[in-house]
Amino acid sequence: MVTAKAARRRRRVAVREEYCIGCRLCEVACVTRHSRSRDVVAAHKTESPRPGGGVRFEAAGPVSLAVSCRHCADPLCVEACLTGAMARDPGTGRVVHDPARCVGCWMCVMTCPTGVPRPDPAAHRLAFKCDLCGGDDLPACVAACPNAAAVLVEEDEP
Amino acid sequence: MTADLLVIGHSVAACHAAEAARGAGLAGSLVVVGDEPAGNYSRPLISYYLGGRLGRDELSFRSQAFYDRNRIQVLAGRRAVALDPAARTVTLADGERLGYRSLLLATGGEPIVPPIKGWREGLGGVFTFTKLADADALAAWLDARGSDDCVVLGGGLIGLKATEGLLARGVRPRIVELADRVLANTLDREASAILERRLAVAGCEVRKGRTVAEIRAGGDRVSSVVLDNGEVLPARTLIVAIGVKPDLRLVRETPMAVERGILVDSRQRTNLAGVYAAGDCAQGPDFLGLKPAVIAIWPVAARQGRIAGLNAAGASGETAGAIPMNAVQILDVPAVSFGVTNPAPGGGHEILKRDDQAGGKYRKIVLLDGRVVGVVLVGEIDRAGLLGTLIRERADVSDRRDALLRADLGLLDLPADLRRRLVDAPPPAPLKNSSGPARSRSVR
Amino acid sequence: MARTRVAPDFAVRRDTARCINCKACVRLCANGVHVWDEVAGAPVADESKCVGCHFCEEHCPTRALSIERAPAETTSGGHWTRSAIRGIGRQAETGGILLGAMGNDRPQMAYFDRLVLNAAQVTNPSIDPLREPMELKTFIGSRPDRIEIARGAGGRPRLGAPLPPLLEIETPIMFSAMSYGSISLNACRSLAGAAGEIGTCWNTGEGGLHPDLESCADRAIVQVASGRFGVTPEYLARAAAIEIKVGQGAKPGIGGHLPGGKVTEDVSRTRRIPVGSDAISPAPHHDIYSIEDLKQLIFALKEATRYSKPVGVKIAAVHNVASIAIGIVHAGADFIAIDGIRGGTGAAPSVIRDHVGIPIELALASVDQRLREEGLRHRVSIIAAGGIRSSADVLKAIALGADAVYIATAALVALGCHVCRTCYLGKCNWGIATQDPALTRRLNPEVGQTRAANLLRAWSHEIKEMLGGMGVNAIESVRGNRDHLRGVGLSQVELDLLGIKHAGSPW
Fold first, then answer.
1. Do C27 and A22 touch (CB under 8 A)?
2. CA–CA separation, B264 vs A76, rounded Å?
3. Which residue of C has its CA nearest to B427?
4. pLDDT tens digit string along C113-160?
5. 3-state secondary structure of B113
C-alpha cells in the first residue's frame, strides 16, 4: 500500500507450520534467554515475574504454530504508538519496545496484523515482546527449535 | 522563505509525513509550523500527564534525533492565519509569509464547545481537554481550588480519558452524557455497561441521557451546572469534553473543498494543487465503502500523514481507506473497537456476541456477507489486531463463526492462505536430485 | 479374562528439582505416557505405555527426564529371559502371533564383529586420501563376457558391442527398500533427497512412487513385489533400476501386510488401492514357481523398459542361497540383493524375524564364491543388506564379495529413530514409521535429508581412510578381495565358509 525507500537488512523469525511440532521449546528458550541467570531451571523456577514471553503458541488439531513479532518493514504498531515506546531501530530495523515509555494505550494491540503484542491490563502496559535476542547471531527460539521449523529470515528491504 | 514541504500543524500526521517524505528522497527544506509553544508531544497522553503517570518530559513521541535525522525545521508557537493557494504562500500570525512547493495541512481538531446558557469566555473553572496547555491549566486549577465537585460534560473518549486522569489525582468527577451510554460512538450498550460499572466502583457517577442546560457562576468562576431536567449539580470544575471538530480556520477563505473536514482523495490530495491534508482535519475515503468521514484517531492520522509525505515527495502511496477503530483502557478495563459497531437494523448485518457482564468481558463481531465489518472487545483484547486484519482483508469467515468469538482466536483460525501470507515463512525446500540420474545407460 | 500383569519395560525418571512443568513431554508423547496431573500441578508418567523411544528425554529442555530399562525381574540364569516370559504372557492373553519390528536383536553372533581389516606398513605404503584421489564410484549391473573392440573411422578404437545398462553410484552405499506407507512421506523425502544429494540410490519398496518424490525418481530403484502395488508403465519408466522383491531378511518366506489404518488417501493413491484396505503382499509371487517363471518376469520388465535399466532380484539369505543366486543369474538378473537375518522390517512375526534365515556375512561369501566357480560373477552385481551398522561393516561386506550395500535401519537412525522397535504401532514419535499428521511433521525432510546425506558422507570418508590405510586407491581393489580380511576367534568351518584366514596368518 505504501512504498518507502530504506535500504537495510530485515531480520525476523518465521515458523513453518508444516514442521512445528508443538513442543513449545521456543517459549522455554525465550524465557531463559531473557532471564537474569540465563539458566533454564532458575529462569522458570525462581525468577519472578517470569522473563521473556516473546513467543505466542497456537495449536489446532495436528497443526501448531509459534508466532512472534515479524519486525515489519512498515510496522503499523510503530505508526500507531502514542508514546514512541514502540520504535523501529533505524540501524538494525528491529522493532523494539521500551516498557518504561509504554502507557498501555493498546494501539499496537489494535493495529498489529498478526495479533502479536500482548497486553497486560493490570500493569497498564504491554508485556514483553520479541527483541530478536538483542544482537545475538541466532535468536534463542530458532536455536532451540528441534525441527528447524523456526527459522531466521533475513531479507534486503527494497 | 520557500519550503519544499511545508506542514501546518505539529502532531502525529506532521511527523509521519516528514519521515515518509525524507524516506522517499525529499532533499529540500522541510518546515513544520505548530501553534503550540511545546515541541513534540503526544496529545492523547495529556490524561496520563494530568494523572501524574507521565512527567512533562515524558510526553514526546519522537526525539530530537528524529528531527535531526529527518532535517525538520520546526517553527513552534507560530500560528498560520492565512493561505494563498494561488501564490502558494502561508502567512503566520506575526506576519511572516512562507512559500511552499507542497503543503500539508495537518491542523487537527478543535474542541466543540456548544452554546450553553451562562457560558462566557474567561469563566474560571471551565476547561476543554485536548492540549497540553489544557492539562496544565486544569492541574493548576485543581491544585489551587481543590478537587471537590467536578463535572465532566461528555462521556466519549476525551471525557473518559479526562476522567481517568482525574481519578488518578483523587478527583471523582460526575460524568454527564447525552447518550444512553458512555463511549456511545464506538461501543454498544453491553460494552458500555461494563465500563460504567467499573466507573461506578471507582466512585464516578454517570448521568446518562442528560446534558448541561445552564452554567451558573459565582463571581468569575463556575459554581454549579443545571441539567436539562432541572437538577442542579455543584460544579467547581467543569470539563467540556463533547468532542472535537476539524480545525478549518486556515481554509475558510480559500476555494478549498470542504465538508465536515477538508476533502481528500486516496493520496491525501485536496482540490488545490500541491496541497495535501491529513489527520483530524481531513475527510477521506472510508475503507468499508461508507461516506467519506473524518476519522479523528491517532493511527489514521499517522497513516494519512505518511501517505501525504510520500506523495509530496513524488513517491507513490495510496490508502485503501480508513477504518474507524479505537483502543482505550478505563481503569483496569481495556476495550477495542473497529468499524461498524452498531449497525442500523435492516442492513443485513449478522451479529455474534459473547456477553459476560459479571466477568467484565464482552465480545461482539458484526458480519456482513460473511465478512467482518465491526468488532467490539471489552476486558479481553488480546490479538485484537487479527480481527482488524480480517476486516482489511475482507476475508470470508462465514465458516468460522465460533472461532471469532473465542478470546484465543489465533492465526490458525484464519483462512490458510491469509495465515500463510501473514506468517510469510519460507516454503519447504523443493526436493531435487542435484547429482543427476544414476545413469542407466547402454554404452556403444 | 483376567489381564496378565506385566511390569513395564521402562522406568521414567523425572528429576523434580529440574522439571519446570513446561509440559513438553505431555504434549509430545504419542503413547500417552506423560499426563498432566491437575491436582498435583505436575506431570506424571504411566510407564506401562512407554516404548523407550527417548523422544521425551531428548526434548526435555532441562534434562529432567531419563528413560531407563526397568530392572529385570527374572532370577534365572538367562535362559528364561524377560522377553520370553513377556511373550508367553501376551500370547496367553491374546492367542495371537507376536509382532516385532526393526531387525533381529537376539544375541547371535555378528560375524562382522569377528572380522578385521588389513593395513599397509613399510613395504606397501599407505595412501593419504586427503592428498590423492580415492575412488568409491561403483557400477551396478551385468558386465559382458568380454569387451569387443571395433575400429571406427580413421582406425579409432570403439566398443564393438553395447554394454548392458549400469547404475552409476558415487559411493557403494544405497538406501534399502522402505515403502511410503511403512514410513512417512517426510522420511521418504529425506532419503530420496539424500540419495540425490550424494549421488547414490534410494528404493521405493513396494509402495509405489509418490508424486512428491518424482524429482528423485531417476535415482530410485523401484520394487515390483508380490502385491504389485503401484506398478505402472510410468513407474518403471521413471526409475533408475527395477528390483523384483522375492524375499526380505526379516521375514523370509512370508508376505507383507500393511494394515488398512495406514492406507491413508495419499498412500492409497500411491499404491493404487482403496483407502483403508489392508495392503497384502502374498508370500510368493503367484506367477513365479520356477527360475523360468522368474526369467519371464525379468524379461517382461526389461521389455517394458526397452533394456534401458538394470533389473535385479532381492532375496532373503537362506540355506541354499548360493544355488538360488545361480538360478537368478541364469534368469537374466543384472543384480542380486541379498538380505541377511538381521534385516529390518516395519512389522513381522517375531518368531520368523528372529529364527529364519542366515547371517549376511556367510550368505555373501558363499554366493560370491559359487558365482566365481561357475564363471558368472561378472554377469551380476551383488548388493548386501541386513544389519550394516558402520563404514567398517560396509567395507567388510565389500571385501567378502559385495558390490554395494543397502542400509535401512542405519538410515532411519540418522533421521532420529532410536530403535524402540514399535514401528507396527504407527505411533512413531520421531515421525518416521507413522502416517499420523501430528507425528509426521516431526520429521522435517530438509533436516532429514541433511542428516542422511551426512551419514553417507561420513561413512564414505571413513571408507576412504581405511582404503588409504590398506594402500589401495579404489574400492574396486577390495571388492571380493578376502585377503584384506582375517577372522578372530572363528572355527575352521566358519573361516572356510567365509573364505578367509584366521588373524595372525600371513598372506
1. yes
2. 22
3. C446
4. 999 999 999 888 999 999 999 999 999 999 999 888 888 888 888 888
5. coil
